[in-house]
Amino acid sequence: MPYGHILEGRLGVTIAFDPYELGPGDSISCDSSMLHRLFAIGAEPAVGIWFVVARGSDPRIVRKS
After folding, report:
1. pTM of the full structure
2. Among candidate residues 63, 21, 61, 55, the one with its CA nearest the CA of residue 38
């Protein structure tokens, strides 16, 4: 599951077909298997912290025994 927290600028987020607009201090999370899109709104870059938790089923991750 991805989590994001916006520090500066405006970030547009579309999850499935639902649009959201985030600004400094706003946070978001969603089911990463749903269609999602992130984009900056306006001329100022969007700056934030974005991380993903519990990607255990991702076949790209190689785990050592």
Report:
1. 0.74
2. 21
